[in-house]
Structures are given as structure tokens and as C-alpha cells.
Design a protein that fits this description.
By secondary structure, the protein is of the alpha+beta class. It is built from 12 helices and 9 strands.
């Protein structure tokens, strides 16, 4: 299985539609559901105002993605308004998956630059701007397929210069990442991971950190803790989860978990169960 598919298996994007129609007035992100946000401009001229950024005038069908949420404002520039499809997003149950963190804070792409999306976009827009039975779940599935196609496009075209998607676009680093994903319980070292990548230890460590912003073993720990959090939510014991993550006992696992999530596994689980 390729490394992107493994990420998706554990942190597949989830989308919930919150608007589909003609936007004729200004719209602000503080009125949207929590989480990441996706906007698809189908028709019209739209001014995108992003906190901390310059206003951007969009005059063609465009995808706008804020994977982790970001303050922004949408302003139609014509009396006829804009046709938009908008959804809230999440990536896995913990909300901080490597996949989510791999994406840039903001992504704005004309739809015509991603031809593989065209058939799904046609179905999505036809469904979104009609009145049919069973519409919400269909739209959610189509939006999720669209996001996976977007991720594939970003990896294949090497659009992301930083983060895990940049590492997946590099054939050598992708081999090491795949090994971590598939065999995360093994006692990996920088040297053995470098061997998987076919690189020297020093060159591998420097290249990995330059692209992803973290050390190889730092990423490995984050991956293990993400899987551990999912297993805890699924009802596995802390001891089982610790052994499955490659730790010899609960104490070392608990310390690693607390460094990642800011609290012990037991306390974290109780907090999540109350939500």
C-alpha cells in the first residue's frame, strides 16, 4: 500500500456540507462550524479576505481550502452573487493527524488545474444545486472523494514544498515513511530508516527535517501516538496500546503520549469521552 493510502486509512478526511447555493451577501468564517473549511466557487466573482493576507479576487471556478480553519471572509462582487458549495472538514478522530498537519494553512487552486476532479465536480454541483432525496450523505461522500483526489494531485505534482506531503512526493523519503507507517512497532533508528530510503544517515536526517520540519524519530513518535489515540478510543487497554506502539511498558508510553497530547493517556481518554 502506498504511504498516502496508509495515511488515509487512519485519518481519512470527513466533510459536512453547511452551504450550497447562491451567496449574495458577505459571509464570515466565525459563523461556520468548527474545524477546517472547504469552499468550491462554481460561478461568479468572489473576493476572498484572509486574516493576515492580501485580498484575492477570484473570477473563475476555484477551490479554497483551510485545513485547520482560519479566519476569512467571502464577499460576492456582483449583484447576481456567487454559486458556492461550502463544507466543514476533519481529519481523523483526534483532529491533528499527520495528514492534516501536512497541508498548507491555505490552498487556493483554480478547478481547471485539477482535471482529475472534473467528473466528481460535475456530480457534486448537479447534486448540490438540486432538491433530491438522500442529498446530504451523497454530498458528503462526493466532497470526501474530491479531497482525496486533491491530496493525490498535491503529492503527484509536488505542489507542497514543506510537510509530510512534500516527503511523500520524494521517492526516497516516501520509502522510509512507508516503512514507519506499515511497521510502526519496530525499533526504528535514524540509521535503519536511512537504509530504507537508500541514503546516508546524515543526509537522510537533514533532508527529512528540511522537508517536514521535524526529525524522523519525532515524526515516528507522532505517528505512533496518533494510532494509539485511535486505539484508546476504540476501547483497547493502555497496556495493549503501548505494546502495539512498540513500547515495552506503559510508563515509557505514557511519557511519550503526554509529550504529544499534554496529558496522560487515561486523562486524555476521559476528556474525549466527555465530549
Amino acid at each position: 500500500m502506498d504511504p498516502l493510502s496508509i495515511l488515509l486509512a487512519h485519518a481519512a478526511p470527513r466533510a459536512n456540507l453547511f452551504f450550497a447555493g447562491n451567496l449574495c451577501q458577505h459571509s464570515h468564517s466565525h459563523d461556520y462550524p468548527a474545524g477546517g473549511h472547504l469552499h468550491l466557487l462554481r460561478r461568479g466573482e468572489l473576493l476572498l479576505r484572509e486574516e493576515g493576507g492580501e485580498p484575492l479576487l477570484l473570477t473563475e471556478p476555484t477551490l479554497i481550502l483551510f485545513p485547520r480553519g482560519r479566519g476569512h471572509r467571502l464577499e460576492p462582487r456582483q449583484l447576481a452573487g456567487c454559486d458556492l458549495v461550502c463544507a466543514s472538514l476533519s481529519f481523523g478522530p483526534t483532529g491533528d493527524s499527520p495528514l492534516q498537519l501536512a497541508l498548507p494553512d491555505t490552498l487556493v487552486l483554480p478547478l481547471q488545474t485539477i482535471p482529475a476532479m472534473a467528473p466528481v465536480l460535475t456530480l457534486l454541483f448537479e447534486e448540490a444545486f438540486a432538491d433530491r432525496y438522500g442529498q446530504p450523505p451523497i454530498l458528503s461522500r462526493l466532497l470526501e472523494v474530491l479531497l482525496i483526489l486533491l491530496l493525490r494531485h498535491l503529492v503527484e505534482q509536488g505542489h507542497c514544498r514543506q510537510g509530510m506531503l512534500a516527503a511523500l512526493s520524494d521517492p526516497r523519503l516516501a520509502r522510509a515513511v512507508t516503512a514507519m507507517h506499515q511497521r510502526g512497532d519496530e525499533p526504528w533508528t535514524v540509521e535503519t530508516l536511512a537504509r530504507e530510503a537508500g541514503m546516508s544517515r546524515a543526509r537522510f536526517a537533514a533532508h527529512f527535517q528540511a522537508l517536514t520540519g521535524q526529525t524522523p524519530l519525532g515524526y515516528l513518535t507522532r505517528w505512533r501516538m496518533m494510532l494509539a489515540s485511535q486505539q484508546l478510543l476504540a476501547g483497547e487497554s493502555i497496556t495493549q496500546v503501548a505494546l502495539g506502539a512498540g513500547y515495552s511498558g506503559g510508563t515509557a508510553f505514557g511519557r511519550a503520549f503526554e509529550r504529544e497530547f499534554g496529558m496522560s493517556p487515561g486523562r486524555w481518554l476521559k476528556t474525549r469521552q466527555r465530549e
